[in-house]
Write a structure and sequence with these properties.
Blueprint lengths: L9 H21 L6 H14 L3 E5 L2 H11 L7 E5 L5 H8 L3 E5 L10 H7 L4 E4 L11 H11 L2 E2 L10 E2 L2 E2 L7 E4 L13 E5 L2 H10 L4 E3 L2 E2 L10 H11 L2 H19 L5 E2 L7 E2 L5 E5 L2 H10 L29 H9 E4 L7 H15 L1
Helix pairs in contact: 1-8, 2-8, 3-4, 9-12
Length: 368
């Protein structure tokens, strides 16, 4: 049997290889490689598709988060509320501006940050709530926006895993004051390399991000603020312009694959399937199940030529990078349990129902 990969770009590459090569040739022939028409077109198209007024392309998702916090003038003596259950980039962004990380546990059903715990974590120094729409499902944005409004706080959405995800019909990445997303190759909308973007409805935040990403300059050789070089390049923007046209189609395919998993696995009592909030439209960046026999199942599937992944095996508070915060095992039991029991199954456009069924058959055999 051929290995069932955890992720594959084969279908993508076959579908739009010529279009992408044409876009690369177009950029090459234009002799304009940084902040040109491809970037302008992508920023406009992404805004139109996702319901925001402004998109600003940057070099990565992490840069997008950092610049968003910079736009809000977040720094030392400020606190930013972040999920305990997230990829470390969320925490790194807060560290990069010198603010204090305040970690909040997730809802055990959705794995997303719990609004009631957010309220309990607010102090006089809190300035920002940073929800992460994990695995492709929106956080409870009605509750989070209400909390922010009541306490005069900013909201910065980390939308790297939930492009075209919605909460009550509104796209993620369009709720907060200024938001961030990633176009890392494995994301639902991925570049061929590093890229990211900021989304905002604020003209002031847009102008700051445009200036800050470009050495603090809007006009060549005139620098009004101390900025950085974090510009999405023309090649990546051209590639994303091609891929963006297929995002809705591929999102629907992801949902169908997830539904196939659900129907195949729903009778296995030993595993928890993804819970989807009634208000959310899950776009399944990842299909994550829970099981107490995670390590054994991973080994069994790999022995049968099925790749899986673990998102994430070590929570941020237990990473050596954050040892200075003094956290220890047991401080955040919900995320620690998730880190020991979650497993991500293969899910990507091009994965066939036959392959999904085979994965499920082996999972059933394991539990028999």
């Amino acid at each position: 049997m051929q290995m069932i990969l955890f992720n594959s770009f084969k279908k993508h590459n076959e579908l739009y290889k010529k279009q992408i090569l044409d876009s690369i040739e177009r950029v090459f022939d234009s002799q304009w490689y940084v902040l040109g028409k491809e970037v302008e077109n992508f920023e406009a198209s992404y805004s139109k598709l996702t319901g925001v007024k402004n998109t600003i392309g940057v070099a990565s998702g992490l840069d997008a988060l950092i610049i968003a916090l910079k736009a809000l003038e977040i720094g030392p003596n400020n606190e930013v509320i972040v999920p305990s259950n997230t990829y470390i980039a969320t925490w790194l962004a807060v560290s990069s501006v010198g603010a204090k990380i305040v970690s909040v546990e997730p809802n055990p059903k959705t794995f997303n940050i719990c609004p009631s715990l957010i309220e309990k974590a607010i102090t006089k120094n809190t300035k920002v709530i940073m929800p992460v729409h994990l695995y492709g499902q929106s956080c409870d944005m009605d509750a989070i926006m209400n909390i922010a409004k009541k306490n005069n706080l900013f909201v910065v959405e980390d939308n790297a895993q939930s492009q075209l995800g919605t909460w009550n019909g509104k796209y993620t990445g369009s709720f907060g004051d200024i938001n961030a997303t990633s176009f890392y190759p494995t994301k639902n909308l991925g570049a061929i390399g590093e890229a990211g973007a900021i989304t905002t409805n604020s003209i002031a935040h847009k102008e700051f991000a445009l200036t800050y990403r470009n050495y603090g300059s809007k006009q060549k050789y005139i620098n009004n603020i101390k900025g950085v070089n974090s510009r999405i390049d023309e090649l990546q923007a051209g590639i994303l312009n091609v891929k963006l046209k297929y995002l809705k189609e591929f999102t629907e395919e992801r949902k169908k694959i997830a539904a196939r998993y659900n129907s195949n696995l729903e009778d296995i009592k030993e595993i928890d399937l993804p819970y989807v909030s009634p208000e959310a439209d899950h776009v399944y960046h990842l299909y994550v199940i829970k099981t107490s026999k995670r390590e054994e199942l991973v080994k069994f599937l790999l022995k049968n030529d099925i790749q899986t992944e673990i998102h994430y095996p070590i929570p941020p508070h237990l990473q050596k990078a954050y040892s200075e915060l003094g956290y220890k095992k047991g401080d955040f039991p919900i995320v620690e349990n998730l880190s020991e029991t979650c497993i991500s199954l293969p899910l990507y456009p091009g994965l066939t129902f036959e392959e999904v069924d085979l994965v499920c058959d082996h999972i059933k055999k394991f539990y028999e």
